[in-house]
Amino acid sequence: MPADTAAQPFVNALLALVQAQAGPTGFVGLHEWAEILERYFPPELPDPDHTTR
Fold it and tell me: Taking the chain, what is the end-to-end CA distance rounded to the nearest angstrom?
C-alpha cells in the first residue's frame, strides 16, 4: 500500500498491534492498545486561543 493513502495511519496502528501481540504472552492489554492507538490517532486537544461567542 502506498505510504500516502488515507488508510496509512490505520495500517500502521494495526501493524503495531500485531507486533505487540507477537510478544511472549500473545496478549495485548487494554493499556497497550490505548497507547498504540494514541500514537497513530492522537486526540485533538482544545485550542486555548479559540473562543466562542
Answer: 45
